[in-house]
Amino acid sequence: MNRFEGKVVIVTGAGSGIGAATAKRFLEEGAALILNGRRKNRLEETAQGFPRDKVLIDSGDISENEYVLGLVKRTVDKFNRIDVLVNNAAISVFGSFGGSPEEDWRKVMKTNVDSVFYTIRAALPHLLASKGSIVNVSSVSGLGGDWYQSFYNASKGAVSNLTRSLALELAPHGVRINAVNPSLTLTEMTAAFQQHQPLMEKILERIPLGRCAKPEEVASVIAFLASNDASFVNGVNLPVDGGLTASNGQLNPTAFLTDFGLN
């Protein structure tokens, strides 16, 4: 497919995981890319093999407005337009509400929420001109609560509801905005969970497909939402979760069926 031939796409947090997979997916479909992240070496790894005339590596802190304004200017200076903005950059902390330092709250909110605010505000004039689209990477943690992730939940809840609100406001001007809401995905950010086998077994018990998402599986949904194939999709928070949020949270009784004469 070449759904993004001639299009210009900004991907934040493109140095690893979902961001890197998303960048590669858009490139495969013809887009020119701006890759943002804090670690330039990781962005260069993502861009390895990319045609140099179709990529701009721009490392910096996406939670700082001055940097974001410069990023958008450099994008337009090089490619003359912006068609798609993918807000993927995020961090997570794990800990009790009372026991986690205020510094962690500020860090999570800056990276996960302020960055989305700054990038959309800065890119919006260009997205209005191109009738473009925005895809925010939220989380199933932005649709419901998790144990010991209140800071992360609050940040992703903000992203999910900002997506809904802006979808109402921007649609009359030709700009669509949606979000993807992945469950646990095999990325650098979830490495600590992945390495804890008993915890992983409990997590996988809750996912009907019985496994975690791959970054490429989330990237394909992001590309769909950004494309004209989703031209009438707006304001959606789309779970990419193997069926996790299809459950109402009650116990899976499969192991006990024979006790009730069922199989």
Structural class call reads alpha/beta
How many extended strands?
7
- Overall 3D shape: globular
Number of helices: 8
| Full CATH superfamily name | NAD(P)-binding Rossmann-like Domain
Write the layout of secondary structure elements.
Elements: E1 8-11, H1 17-28, E2 32-37, H2 40-46, E3 55-59, H3 65-79, E4 84-87, H4 102-130, E5 133-137, H5 150-170, E6 176-182, H6 191-194, H7 197-205, H8 215-226, E7 237-240
Parallel strand pairs: 1-2, 1-4, 2-3, 4-5, 5-6, 6-7
Structure characterization notes:
By secondary structure, this protein is of the alpha/beta class. It has a single domain (8-260), classed as Rossmann fold. It is built from 8 helices and 7 strands, in the order βαβαβαβαβαβαααβ. A 7-stranded parallel beta sheet has the order 3-2-1-4-5-6-7, sandwiched between helices. The model has no long low-confidence stretch (mean pLDDT 94).
Brief write-up:
This protein has one domain: Rossmann fold, CATH 3.40.50.720. The protein contains eight helices and seven strands; from the N terminus they run βαβαβαβαβαβαααβ.
Features:
13% strand; alpha/beta; Rossmann fold
